[in-house]
Specification:
This protein is mainly beta and about 100 residues long. The protein has a single domain, classed as GroES chaperonin (10 Kd Chaperonin, Protein Cpn10, Chain O, Roll). It contains one helix and eight strands; from the N terminus they run βαβββββββ. It has a six-stranded antiparallel beta sheet with strand order 6-7-1-2-5-8. Strands 3-4 form a two-stranded antiparallel ribbon. About 25% of the residues are buried.
Protein backbone atom coordinates (compact mmCIF):
# COMPACT_ATOMS: atom_id res chain seq x y z
CA UNK A 1 0.00 0.00 0.00
CA UNK A 2 1.31 3.46 -0.94
CA UNK A 3 1.70 5.87 1.96
CA UNK A 4 0.72 9.49 1.31
CA UNK A 5 1.76 12.42 3.49
CA UNK A 6 -0.74 13.40 6.17
CA UNK A 7 -2.01 16.81 5.12
CA UNK A 8 -4.73 19.08 6.52
CA UNK A 9 -5.63 21.27 3.58
CA UNK A 10 -7.17 24.70 4.08
CA UNK A 11 -10.25 25.75 2.15
CA UNK A 12 -10.90 24.33 -1.29
CA UNK A 13 -7.45 22.99 -2.07
CA UNK A 14 -6.54 19.55 -3.44
CA UNK A 15 -3.21 17.74 -3.18
CA UNK A 16 -2.64 15.82 -6.43
CA UNK A 17 0.08 13.22 -6.90
CA UNK A 18 1.46 13.77 -10.38
CA UNK A 19 1.58 10.79 -12.71
CA UNK A 20 5.07 9.21 -12.72
CA UNK A 21 5.86 9.80 -16.38
CA UNK A 22 5.16 13.52 -15.91
CA UNK A 23 6.86 13.98 -12.53
CA UNK A 24 10.34 14.14 -14.09
CA UNK A 25 9.37 17.36 -15.91
CA UNK A 26 8.78 19.21 -12.63
CA UNK A 27 12.48 19.80 -11.99
CA UNK A 28 12.75 21.88 -15.15
CA UNK A 29 12.10 25.60 -14.81
CA UNK A 30 10.40 26.03 -18.19
CA UNK A 31 6.97 24.42 -18.10
CA UNK A 32 5.51 23.16 -21.38
CA UNK A 33 2.03 24.30 -22.42
CA UNK A 34 0.46 20.82 -22.37
CA UNK A 35 -1.61 19.78 -19.34
CA UNK A 36 -0.59 17.36 -16.59
CA UNK A 37 -2.61 14.69 -14.86
CA UNK A 38 -2.57 13.04 -11.48
CA UNK A 39 -4.67 11.55 -8.68
CA UNK A 40 -6.22 13.51 -5.81
CA UNK A 41 -4.69 12.21 -2.54
CA UNK A 42 -6.01 14.87 -0.12
CA UNK A 43 -8.81 17.42 -0.30
CA UNK A 44 -9.82 20.41 1.83
CA UNK A 45 -13.32 20.93 3.28
CA UNK A 46 -14.24 23.75 0.88
CA UNK A 47 -14.73 27.51 1.09
CA UNK A 48 -17.57 29.69 2.29
CA UNK A 49 -19.14 32.07 -0.22
CA UNK A 50 -20.11 35.68 0.66
CA UNK A 51 -23.53 34.44 1.89
CA UNK A 52 -21.91 31.96 4.29
CA UNK A 53 -22.70 28.80 2.31
CA UNK A 54 -20.05 26.10 2.03
CA UNK A 55 -18.83 25.45 -1.52
CA UNK A 56 -17.28 21.98 -1.59
CA UNK A 57 -14.42 21.01 -3.92
CA UNK A 58 -15.47 19.77 -7.36
CA UNK A 59 -13.48 16.51 -7.03
CA UNK A 60 -12.99 13.81 -4.42
CA UNK A 61 -10.25 11.51 -3.16
CA UNK A 62 -8.86 9.04 -5.66
CA UNK A 63 -10.16 10.92 -8.72
CA UNK A 64 -7.79 11.25 -11.69
CA UNK A 65 -7.68 14.88 -12.82
CA UNK A 66 -6.21 17.04 -15.59
CA UNK A 67 -4.74 20.46 -14.82
CA UNK A 68 -2.63 23.09 -16.56
CA UNK A 69 1.09 22.47 -16.17
CA UNK A 70 1.50 26.04 -14.91
CA UNK A 71 -1.25 25.71 -12.26
CA UNK A 72 -0.73 25.34 -8.54
CA UNK A 73 2.34 24.87 -6.39
CA UNK A 74 4.85 22.03 -6.81
CA UNK A 75 5.61 19.94 -3.71
CA UNK A 76 7.97 16.99 -3.36
CA UNK A 77 7.77 14.42 -0.56
CA UNK A 78 9.96 11.32 -0.24
CA UNK A 79 10.95 11.48 -3.90
CA UNK A 80 7.36 11.76 -5.17
CA UNK A 81 5.92 14.80 -6.97
CA UNK A 82 2.71 16.52 -5.90
CA UNK A 83 0.85 19.66 -6.93
CA UNK A 84 -1.30 21.76 -4.60
CA UNK A 85 -4.27 23.05 -6.62
CA UNK A 86 -7.37 25.15 -6.06
CA UNK A 87 -10.38 22.82 -6.44
CA UNK A 88 -13.40 25.10 -5.87
CA UNK A 89 -15.11 27.20 -8.55
CA UNK A 90 -14.80 30.01 -9.39
CA UNK A 91 -11.09 29.82 -10.00
CA UNK A 92 -10.59 26.05 -9.90
CA UNK A 93 -7.22 25.06 -11.34
CA UNK A 94 -8.50 21.55 -12.13
CA UNK A 95 -9.64 21.41 -15.75
CA UNK A 96 -11.32 17.98 -15.83
CA UNK A 97 -11.74 14.68 -14.04
CA UNK A 98 -11.09 11.43 -15.89
CA UNK A 99 -13.34 8.41 -15.59
CA UNK A 100 -12.15 5.18 -17.18
CA UNK A 101 -14.85 3.40 -19.16
CA UNK A 102 -15.00 -0.26 -20.10
CA UNK A 103 -16.44 -0.80 -23.56
Amino acid sequence: MIQHPTVDLIGGRALVEIAEEQASRIVHTARPARPDRGVVVAIGPGETDPKGRLRRPDVGLGVEVVFAHSAGIDYQFEGRAFRLLRAVDPGSEILASIERMTV
